[in-house]
């Protein structure tokens, strides 16, 4: 398998972490989005959306979108709950991550860390919605160690990717103690370097 990803992208790292956690053999092809690496003719032929991550499976089929990729890779593993309801709850968190978390927490991080924008200059809506997303996580972890069940699932993988680096976008994880503790548990469970 070939994984096309940019190491600065939480969406790409999700795929790497799942592949590593499950012992997949792969070639990582660094695809620098800051210089248009996902916009070349060769890349667009593989993934017309022009986004990383993208994978080429061993049989040559392409697959894109981080959460679709990790679902494919983790099928049959402990990262996907066996219980139908718990599986649906995992998917609920994953869909929410792409719609209500990543567009704010990750965008703030990108603008501050990679575009050099001062935190004070971030669009207030991005900051407010990022804080709301982190609070939703804080509330969701009120009575549990992981988002679904008693062990990490793909919901945890999907949400830890940008949450763990939220500080790079001006969000203080100290304001969300359950989230901060959860990040540590997920990093440990997946053997993610801090």
List the helices and strands and how they pair.
Layout (H helix, E strand, L loop, with lengths): L1 E4 L4 H12 L5 E4 L10 H6 L7 E3 L5 E3 L1 H9 L9 H31 L9 H17 L13 H10 L13 H14 L4
Parallel strand pairs: 1-2
Antiparallel strand pairs: 1-3, 3-4
Helix pairs in contact: 1-3, 1-6, 4-5, 4-6, 6-7
Essential attributes:
single chain, 194 residues, alpha+beta, four-stranded mixed sheet, 7 helices, 4 strands, globular
Provide a descriptive summary of the structure in words.
By secondary structure, the protein is of the alpha+beta class. It contains 7 helices and 4 strands. A 4-stranded mixed beta sheet has the order 2-1-3-4, covered by helices on one side. The radius of gyration is 16 Å and the shape is globular. The two termini are 26 Å apart. The model has no long low-confidence stretch (mean pLDDT 96).
* Helix and strand composition category: alpha+beta
Distance between the termini: 26 Å
Helix content estimate = 40-55%
Low-confidence stretches: none
Work out the strand percent.
5-15%
Give the number of DSSP strands.
4
Which of globular, elongated, flat, extended, rod-shaped describes the shape?
A: globular
Strand/helix succession:
EHEHEEHHHHH
Rg measurement, Å: 16 Å
DSSP summary: helix tally? 7
Strand arrangement in the largest pleated sheet: 2-1-3-4
Major sheet details: 4 strands, mixed
Overview in brief:
This protein is an alpha+beta fold and 194 residues long. The protein has helices spanning 10-21, 41-46, 66-74, 84-114, 124-140, 154-163, 177-190; strands spanning 2-5, 27-30, 54-56, 62-64.
């Amino acid at each position: 398998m070939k994984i096309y990803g940019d190491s600065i992208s939480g969406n790409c790292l999700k795929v790497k972490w799942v592949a590593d956690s499950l012992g997949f053999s792969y070639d990582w092809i660094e695809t620098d989005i800051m210089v248009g690496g996902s916009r070349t003719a060769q890349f667009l032929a593989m993934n017309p959306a022009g986004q990383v991550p993208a994978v080429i499976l061993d049989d040559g089929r392409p697959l894109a979108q981080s959460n679709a990729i990790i679902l494919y890779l983790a099928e049959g593993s402990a990262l996907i709950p066996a219980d139908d309801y718990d599986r649906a709850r995992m998917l609920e968190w994953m869909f929410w991550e792409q719609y209500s978390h990543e567009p704010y927490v990750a965008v703030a991080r990108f603008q501050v860390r990679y575009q050099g924008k001062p935190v004070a200059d971030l669009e207030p809506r991005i900051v407010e919605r990022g804080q709301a997303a982190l609070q939703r996580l804080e509330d969701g972890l009120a009575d549990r160690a992981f988002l679904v069940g008693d062990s990490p699932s793909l919901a945890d993988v999907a949400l830890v990717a940008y949450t763990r680096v939220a500080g790079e976008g001006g969000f203080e994880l100290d304001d969300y103690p359950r989230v901060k503790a959860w990040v540590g548990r997920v990093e440990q469970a997946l053997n993610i370097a801090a």
